[in-house]
Amino acid sequence: MANETILVTGGAGFIGANLVRYMLASWPNARVVTLDALTYAGHTANLAGLEDGRHVFIQGDIRDQPLLVGLLREHAVRGVIHLAAETHVDRSIVGPEVFVQSNVLGTLRLLEAVREVAQEQPEQIRRVVHVSTDEVYGTLGAEDAAFTPRSRYAPRSPYSASKAGGDHLARAYFHTYGLPIVVTNCSNNYGPYQHPEKLIPLMIGNALAGEPLPLYGDGRQVRDWLYVDDHCAGLAVALDQGQPGETYLFGGANQTTNLELVTAICDLLDELLPRADGFRYGALITHVADRPGHDRRYVVDGDKAWQTLGWQPSHNLTEGLRKTVAWYLGAGAEWLAARRAEPEYQDWLEENYDPRGGADQ
Ligand code: NAD
Ligand code: TYD
C-alpha cells in the first residue's frame, strides 16, 4: 500500500489526523484522501501543514454513499481505513441516536460503496480496515484474563453497542460479499490532537486553568493506554498485510487506574510547569458522580497482532505520557486553548459535569 491512494474516513479527528500524518511520513509515495464531516470532534487544524499535493481533504458525511462511491472511483482508492464515528461514551449516554446514525448506518453506507465499486472493478480495493474498540467486549473484573479476538461481544454503553453493530456489518460483508475487510479493536489511545473532552487532554487543560480534575466514582477503573503513533503503526500494517476476515487487537500493554494516570499527569506538570506559588496540581483532583454503567476494566491481549503482523507497542506509559504532556504544553498549547474555547465544548462541560457535583465521595 506504500505507493497507493488510501481513503481515511474520520481523518480530521484524533486518531485519524495522527494516522494521516503517520502514513504520509512513512510512505513517501502514498497519497491520502481524508473524508470527514467535521463534527464538533473533527477539525482541519488537526491536519494543518499537510498541503503537499499528496493529501486531499473532503468534507462530507460517511452516510453519503454516492459521495463515497465517487471518491473511491475518482481517486482510484486501493485501501480504506474507516475511523469516522461518534466516539465519546458520555455523549452516547446523553444522546445515543447520532451514534447509531454514524457508527452503524455510516459503516453500512461505506461497505455498500465499497461493494458497488468492487462489482465494477474487483481488483481495485485491496483492503478495508474497519477500526473498532475493545469496549465491544464489555467489562472485565480485576482478575479476568485480557480480551482476545475470540472474546464474546458484550457491549454495555450506547457507544460500544453502536461500534459492535458496525463490526458485525463489516464481518458480514466479508463473509457474504467477499469484501477484503480486516477488523481491528484497540484499547484507549492517547497523544497529540485528542479532543479535550477526553480524559487526558481534559485533565491537562483543567490543571493549567486551575480547575478541578473530575474523576468519575472512585477512579479505580482500569484502562490499557496505547500511544496513538503505535496504534497508527498497527493500522498501517493491518492495511498492508492484514488477512481479510481476520480481527486484530491492538493493546498498549499499559494497565493503569484512572487515579494513577491523573496523578502521573499532575506529577509531570509539577515537573515541567511548576507553579510559582508551590501549589501542586494533584490537589485539584476531585471525585464526582460516576458514569452510569461505567465499565470497570478493559485490557487487550495483543498476542495475535504480534504473532501474525509483527506488531507491538513501542511506548510504555511513562514515555508516552511525557511526550503527550510536553506536546499539550508546547507545540499543541494554542491548539488546546482553541478547542477549549469553542462554544460546543463549553456547552458540553455544563451538560456533563454540572449535574455530577464536585464533592469528594
Ligand atoms: P474522534 O472523535 O477524535 O474523531 C472522529 C472523527 O470522525 C471526527 O473527525 C468526526 O468529525 C468524524 N465523524 C463523526 N461522524 C462522522 C460522520 N457521520 N461522517 C464523517 N465523519 C464523521 O475519534 P478518535 O478517537 O479519533 O477515534 C477514531 C476511531 O477509532 C473511531 O471509530 C473510534 O471508535 C475508534 N477507537 C478510538 C479509541 C480511542 O481511544 N480514541 C479507542 C478505540 C477505538
Ligand atoms: P474516556 O476518555 O471517555 O474513554 P473510555 O470511557 O472510552 O474508556 O475515559 C477514560 C476513563 O476516564 C473512563 O474510565 C472514564 C474516566 N473519566 C473520568 O474519570 N473523568 C472524566 O472527566 C472523563 C472524561 C473520563
Question: What's the topology here?
Answer:
Layout: E1 5-9, H1 14-26, E2 31-36, E3 55-59, H2 65-74, E4 79-82, H3 89-94, H4 97-120, E5 127-133, H5 158-177, E6 181-186, E7 189-190, H6 199-209, E8 213-216, E9 222-224, E10 226-227, H7 228-241, E11 247-250, E12 255-257, H8 258-272, E13 285-288, H9 303-309, H10 317-329, H11 333-341, H12 343-353
Parallel strand pairs: 1-2, 1-4, 2-3, 4-5, 5-6, 6-11, 7-10, 8-13
Antiparallel strand pairs: 9-12
Helix pairs in contact: 1-7, 2-4, 4-5, 6-8, 8-10
Core attributes:
seven-stranded parallel β-sheet; 361 residues; binds nicotinamide-adenine-dinucleotide; alpha/beta; two-stranded parallel ribbon; Rossmann fold; binds thymidine-5'-diphosphate
The secondary structure category is: alpha/beta
* Main beta sheet strand tally, sense and closure: 7 strands, parallel
Tally of DSSP β-strands: 13
- What portion of the residues fall into strands of 2 or more residues? 15-25%
Order of helices and strands: EHEEHEHHEHEEHEEEHEEHEHHHH
Q: Give the CATH level 1 class of one domain.
A: Alpha Beta
Helix proportion range: 40-55%
Radius of gyration: 20 Å
Which ligands does the model contain, each kind named once? nicotinamide-adenine-dinucleotide, thymidine-5'-diphosphate
Give me the number of helical elements: 12
